[in-house]
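Action item from last meeting closed. Structure (127 res):
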């Protein structure tokens, strides 16, 4: 596992490096416009906070290959900007369970750190 350097997003903007263990990444997604940074990197043990960086999602995914793209599911409906695309790293998934056995509207991923993420059905190839 390698420690990958990124520029942490801060307010006010500074050049603050952060080194992330590539084996500890759960998923990557675009940060919404009202938040700091361009990309959120969710890492093992960070619960809901994650690490916001200034690099674009495409740049982060080029540096960290091996993810599977899926649409996030929201219980209260998608936010105004639409459903978020998350890029999941399967090596950190513990379980993947449909919400009901008969008609899965969404799937719940439980990661190895016990955090969860809901995805819309159907599941993408690779999960």
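Sequence:
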């Amino acid at each position: 596992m390698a420690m990958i350097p990124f520029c942490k997003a801060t307010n006010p903007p500074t050049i603050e490096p952060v080194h992330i263990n590539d084996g500890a990444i759960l998923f990557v997604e675009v940060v919404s416009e009202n938040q700091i940074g361009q990309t959120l990197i969710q890492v093992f043990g960070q619960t809901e906070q994650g690490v916001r960086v200034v690099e674009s999602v495409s740049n982060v995914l080029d540096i960290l290959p091996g993810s599977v793209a899926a649409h996030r599911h929201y219980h209260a409906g998608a936010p105004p900007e639409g459903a978020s695309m998350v890029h999941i790293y399967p090596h950190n998934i513990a379980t993947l369970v449909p919400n009901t056995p008969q008609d899965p509207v969404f799937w719940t991923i439980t990661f190895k750190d016990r955090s969860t993420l809901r995805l819309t059905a159907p599941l993408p190839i690779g999960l």
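Note appended to the action item: Residues 3-91 form one domain.
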